[in-house]
Amino acid sequence: MLGNQPSLTLYFLPLLQRFWPGFVPGQYRAHLVAKQWQTADMLQLTFQVSGRWPGFVPGQHLLLTLYHNGRYISRPFSICSALSLWQSRQRIQLCCKINSPGEFTPLLNQLQNGAVVNISQAQGDFYWQQPAAPSVFVAAGSGITPIAAMLLSQRHWLAPATLHYRVRGTENAALLKELKQLADKQPLFTLLLSDSLTEPAEMLQQQLCADLNNKQFYLCGPQTFMQQLRNTLSRHGVPAEHIKQEQFGLALPAATTDLSSTNNLLLSANFIRAGISTAVMLNSQYSLLQSAEQHNLAPRFGCRMGVCFQCVCDKVSGQVRDIRSGALSGHGAEQIQLCVSQPVTELVIKL
Amino acid sequence: MKLSTEQFNALEHELDSVKQQVQQQLGDADARYIRRVLLVQRLSALSGRVLMVLGFITPWLWLAGVLLLALAKILDNMEIGHNVLHGQYDWMNDPVLHSKRYEWDIACDAGSWQRTHNFEHHTYTNIIGKDRDFGYGLLRLSNDFRWRLRNLWQGGTYLLLSMLFQWGVSYHELAAQRVFAGKKKADRHTQVSDSELKKAFFGKGARQLVKDYVFFPLIAGPMWLWVLCGNLLANLIRNLWTSTVIFCGHFTKEVYAFDAKECEGESRGQWYYRQMLGSSNFTGPTWLHILTGHLSCQIEHHLYPDIPARHYPAMAKQVHAIAAKYGIPYNTGSFVKQYSTVFGRIMRYSLPGGAKAVKAL
Lengths: 351, 361
Known about the structure:
- The complex is a heterodimer.
- Chain A folds into 3 domains: 8-119, Translation factors (Elongation Factor Tu (Ef-tu), domain 3, Beta Barrel); 135-247, Nucleotide-binding domain of ferredoxin-NADP reductase (FNR) module (Rossmann fold, 3-Layer(aba) Sandwich); 259-350, Ubiquitin-like (UB roll) (Roll).
- Chain A is 21% helix and 32% strand.
- Chain A is built from 9 helices and 18 strands.
- In chain A, the strands form 4 sheets. A 6-stranded antiparallel beta sheet of chain A has the order 4-3-6-1-2-5. In chain A, strands 9-8-7-10-11 form a 5-stranded parallel beta sheet, with helices on both faces.
- In chain A, strand 8, helix 6 (176-185) and strand 9 form a beta-alpha-beta unit.
- The relative contact order of chain A is 0.10.
- In chain B, helix 2 (28-53) runs antiparallel to helix 3.
- Chain B has a domain at 5-28 and 115-181 and 191-350.
- Chain B starts with a helix and ends in a 13-residue tail after the last helix.
- The longest helix of chain B is centred in the first third of the chain and has 27 residues, at 59-85.
- Chain B is mainly alpha-helical.
- Chain B is globular and about 70 Å long.
- Chain A binds chain B through residues 1-2, 4-6, 10-15, 17-18, 24-25, 69-73, 272-277, 296, 298-301, 351, and chain B through 23, 26-32, 35, 38-39, 42-43, 85-87, 90-96, 98-101, 103-105, 114-115, 117-120, 122-123, 207, 210-211, 215, 305-306.
- Chain B: Pfam families: FA_desaturase.
- Chain B: InterPro entries: FA_desaturase_dom, Fatty_acid_desaturase.
- Chain B: One of its GO terms (cellular component) is membrane.
- Chain B: Residues 1-28 form a coiled coil.
């Protein structure tokens, strides 16, 4: 009440940031201590994390926030290092795929050792729930990161676990050295590398379906890859509760593509921002977040993949589709996440 | 309309490109600037409140405290609050400086302000009957309104409105929706229920009153009366200043008003045109621009409400040149000159007759 802000910390933030540059309430400081290329485009970052950080369950992710050219931008990354590294030395590792035309990941590459970033608490419910039951892990590409953390963190092995690690060319397999060491040391763990350049996806599916007997499945990779696997497993009678998955990335066109050059359906929409309504044409292939940004409406955002709920805003009317699941919304007033919503009908949205 | 359709399109294009140039360079410099203003605001608020209590040493300290608190409130309302609530800094993704989160040190609830000011006033600027900011439903500012007896003493009404300006702003939406008195207007589009309006009005108002007139006097102990009077004075200074600045934006002598029918189905270029005719600037040094929240560049603010305001003075040069090119009147002058025409207008239309502000477009 005294400062008209939600908390006095936020009221005093400009002062606090003078003495403590980079301080953001609700976030934790992490110092970059090492940078190492795992593959040609996967960069492994090692951070020394503030002692206040509450820790994580292997498989969870966090939001990494950078301050760049006057703005805070965040993306989610899974922690790929073992729990013991955090417990013994307060360090965590992230494995990030660097997309050079992207907005965020090239900045990670530019970070120097000693650089300070902000991280959120660990979040997400993708973790090794039943280490006592036989488990099958399937990782594709950068989807290896949370699964590597689960496997490398396991101390007492109780049941056999197999990892099917699908990569495009074995030279692109990140964290392979650590996983091979684990396979050599731990007889219950089997590592199977599957190269998508030489082995078709059906082969992997056949291998998986050869022995389904009461196994737990943990999937992590691109959306289409996981959807196919999930369908195959369900067809072979694996109950849904035996399949756990974590989604990486959204299948969206790059926002730099010229809107007018594509032949996609255009829908009109009204974005009401700070009380002022702006009429725009939306391409139905883009997320509402991308469209709003292309029209310079500067909506609030965070992870851009439906995780952090920073871009939630009020839809007044119209229907949207959830990009992840394809589910259609209602037509009335409700809250939606801009980053995972595509327009289906004409829309009115309060940013 | 004095311009042809092609000219309106060309005008739209030229004004858009002025905006784009600035948008492309938004970044660190803007973030540093607004954080610095925020820091000065916080420091003057804190030191002002402390100095007021130290008034027992010498009343001059108390006076300095009052002036610092008034400065803090003016900066918070104008350069920070008004501009942040317009979404000028949303691109920063900052936990404080965001139009959805910011709440300011004034009786008016931020959400209510966004509906009446950002939406109603900025969309329908100076359209008689639609923009309730043209006279605030209290003052007769042109012969487009019928003269009533109460207009005879509107000089006094104006003085009262200025002194209590934050409450006028706060009550603005409730008056429009006829929450407490009057017959509901059928054509008014309601976004928020009356009970929510009341809750926001009383909730925010009470918080402000408790803060300035109960909490801070209480913790000042024996100096409670000094602090209470100091807070009252600081609020009064802020009210008079904001009211004066805002009246200079749309009620100067040469300003235009519009008829609702003329503006139906207007293009973006025509909207720009109307914003330029319906607003007026005043000139002055940088510190004056900052204290007005750059509303001294009201024309640029109305053309580009979501561009960080520190760019307005530079944009004004370009906009002025564009206006000259198309023969559009560009209303500017010194602060004293502009304000004297505002005051003249209020006094003139307290009497019957006079000219209309609606001029055929």
